[in-house]
Amino acid sequence: MPKTSLTSKTSKTSLPKKVLPDKLLPNKVLPKKVLPDKLLPNKVLKPAIIRALVVLMLLSAGGCGFIADGPSGWFVTHVKKAVAKGPAEDGHKTGYACIYAAFGMISLGDASIDTAMRNGGIKEVYSVDTENLSIMGAYTQQCTVVLGN
User: Fold this and answer.
1) Tell me, what's the pLDDT at 55?
2) Could you give the CA distance from residue 53 to residue 45 in angstroms, rounded to a whole number?
């Protein structure tokens, strides 16, 4: 039997390289877009406008729940004010009736003179006052205070 060789001669053939599109070639640098001069002021104006709006928002946030009668402070307001004097000669009893508000969105209560008189057990009025409290507009309380017998 003749001897056969299992080895074969390999020829050196070059395989064709895959051609990549120009976008995918790593060494090709794409030119950067140049911004027109018209847009340059917007880079300065936009942040300034945004800052101004934020400051205005913060300054106006104190007015969410405000007390309309009398002076008010931006952080805290706690004032008492006389409203009327009644026929009684003096006042030994005190009655309160209050309204409460949160963020100027929710307001609950009854601050009428009749409710304050009922709460204090008062039959004859000596004086009627108001007492206002506001903390940055987030919490507001307005009370009617009745002094009498």
Assistant:
1) 80
2) 12
